[in-house]
Structure formats: structure tokens, C-alpha cells
Amino acid sequence: MGTDRSASPTANVIGIDLGGTAIKLGRFRADGTCLASLSVPTPQPATPEAVLLALLEAIDQVDPDGQSLAIGLGTPGPADAPGRVARVAINLAGWRDVPLADWLEAKTGRPSIIANDANCAGLGEYWIGAGKDFQDLILLTLGTGVGGAIILNGELFVGRQGTAGELGLITLDPDGPPCNSGNQGSLEQHASVQAIRRRTGLEPGDLGQRALAGDREAIAFWETYGRELGAGLASLIYVLTPEAIIIGGGISASAPFFFPAAIAEIERRVLPSSREGLQILPAQLGNQAGMVGAAKLAWQHLAAAN
């Protein structure tokens, strides 16, 4: 019988975060230790073939001796449920049903798996970030859009088609602003960077600075923002009863100004039995979360195969 190389203390995998402007990747041990990391520009135009070549070159740089046992990759869009095919990739040219995991396996000889980047960020926070003490949690990323991830019993929940966990697309206002998804008044249309710009004419960072300086209008805006976010989270809590909600993304830099209002709204709307012990926490891994979570995905893929 062969030995299980993944049990070795030096065993490692590669996690990759594929973005529209940069590809971030790192080599990680099973305890989350990062052995090496790298960021390279995403080729422009980012066709599937050009991205594959860039990925292979970057993998060779971060793992020149070919020591890694598996590859996990987060893509900016939905993947199929088995984690083989990038169905669509936002901000990447010509991506439609790209069998990226199969391509990586064929070129590198290593087991490979892919997932949506927000799902990878959720896995990363669960593994070594703000969610490491919990088995049931949700992640919400407040940025250009509002992304989400669901972790149940320590496993990423993606649904039967791989597209579950689009937490930003739940409805807050049936007559609200139209959403790219086809919905109206979604949480994303109340909580994203674009929504903040539309409502205030300002950037979230500017509003945060103004609130910090004591600007009453800015403080009032963040209180309204927190109340609407809390209303959206209330629906998610009733459905999933998570132990923790992790809030990440660029807007979370202003969390001190909107967390209190969000928590108050949750306490007002959600029965105590559905939120017992619930913690609302800021994310810890920043823009490394996707890469870290992709590595965790690779470790889980290895474990399932053995």
C-alpha cells in the first residue's frame, strides 16, 4: 500500500484567488501556515487560454519543486456543484462553462477543484480567520457587490447546482432599485458601494472619515445602513440560525459605525430562540481570504478523495 502524503507535516496545497486584475496564490500546510505566496497581474484580455497560461507560470513560481498535493481556485462567478467548471466569470473575457479544474489537472498532474470566490473567502475565514471557532456561519462581503458564503457543519454549502449562497440577492424592498440579477430592491442594492454612491454621492471611505470626525449626517447614514443590513441579516438568520455572521469587504472598514444599528435591528426582528449565542464579527483575513479559502478547498478535496 502507498503512503498518504497528505498526512506528512510538510504536506501542502496551492490556493489561488483569480480576480479581474490580479491572481493571488499561496502554498499552505494543513494547519493554515502559508509557506510562500505570490501576486501576478491577470492577463488582459483575460481569455480562458491566457489565464490558464498565467496560472501555470504562477504555480511554477510559487511551487518550483512541484511539492504541492492539490490545487484549489476561486473564480469571480459561479462554479458547478462538483467544482469542475467555471460557468461564468465576471470581468473575465469569453468565460462560459470553462472546465478549468480539468485543465489544471491535465497540465499539472495534481487534483484540482474550483469554487466561487466569495465561497472561498467564507472558507478562509472559517479555517483560520474570524470564523475559526464555529461550525455554522455565514460570510457577507460588502464591496462592489454583496457576496456571500454559507458554511454548515464545517462544509461549504453550494446547493445542487453550485449557485446557492447568493446572500446579497435576497429582497429587502420589492419596489426598490433594479439589480443586475433581475431582482429589485435586493440587499445588494442597499448595502454595496454602488448603492452608497447612489444614495449619498460619496465613497464609503469618505463617509467613514466624516463619521470619524463627528459629522452628524455621515453618522446618521451609517445608522440607516446598519438598520437595513440588519433587516437583511434577520431573514438569513431565521433560515440558517448560524453561530456567527462574518462581515468583510471594503465597506466593513466602517463597521464601528454600522454594527451597533445592525445588531439592534437583528435583536428587534429575530426571536431569541433563533439567535441564541449569535456573534456578528468583522472578517480578519482581508483580501487574502479568497486565496486561503481556496487552499482549504484543496485540502477538503484531498480528504474526500482518500
Please give the alpha-carbon distance between the first and last residues. 13 Å
Tell me the total number of β-strands.
12
Query: Approximately what portion of the residues adopt beta-strand conformation?
Result: 15-25%
Structural class: alpha/beta
| Percent helix range | 25-40%
Radius of gyration: 20 Å
**Parts with pLDDT < 50 across at least 5 consecutive residues:** none
**What's the story with the biggest beta sheet?**
5 strands, mixed
Q: Which shape, going by the Cα principal axes? A: globular
Instruction: Please report the number of helical segments.
Output: 9
Strand order of the largest sheet: 3-2-1-4-7
Mean pLDDT: 95
The H/E string reads EEEHEEEHEHEEEHHHHEHEH
Structure explained in plain terms:
With about 300 residues, the protein is an alpha/beta fold. The protein is built from nine helices and twelve strands. The strands form three sheets. It has a five-stranded mixed sheet with strand order 3-2-1-4-7. Strands 10-9-8-11-12 form a five-stranded mixed sheet, sandwiched between helices. A hairpin with a 3-residue loop joins β8 and β9. It starts with 12 loop residues before the first strand and ends with a helix.
List the helices and strands and how they pair.
Blueprint: E1 13-18, E2 22-28, E3 34-41, H1 48-62, E4 71-75, E5 86-88, E6 96-98, H2 100-108, E7 112-116, H3 117-128, E8 137-142, E9 146-152, E10 155-156, H4 188-191, H5 193-200, H6 204-212, H7 216-240, E11 244-248, H8 255-269, E12 279-282, H9 289-305
